[in-house]
Amino acid sequence: MYCRNCGKPVEANALACLACGAAPLAGRKHCQNCAAETDPAAFICVKCGVKLAQGAVPGAKSRLAAGLLGILLGGFGAQRFYLGYTGIGVAQLVVTFLTCGLGAIWGLIDGIVILAGGVNRDADGVPLGP
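^ thats the sequence. predicted structure below, dont judge the formating
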């Protein structure tokens, strides 16, 4: 792996380049083999062909937490507030109150859909974690 700043070789897990002191991989996703910048959704590096390490996205919300919130507190729109979709959350809350609680079925179904993979991203576009 090579430093993006000076081009000198660095260890794969180095926090700073010994030659120039720059952080070789700061703030972006890079190939663990050749250090080329990669698309965050890519599975294979287009430069060297190595399978990219896949890990949880920092700051990603949990699909399991969102689904359970939908099943347990879906009538209050808890899962949608958690994912950042405040408009849908407010709509679920209003429907639940206007239907004297029957609208909570919407939240229950929504929680099941989230767990099944029907919702893949939060309101900021960040993919949901496990």
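The CA atoms of residues 4 and 24 lie 6 Å apart.
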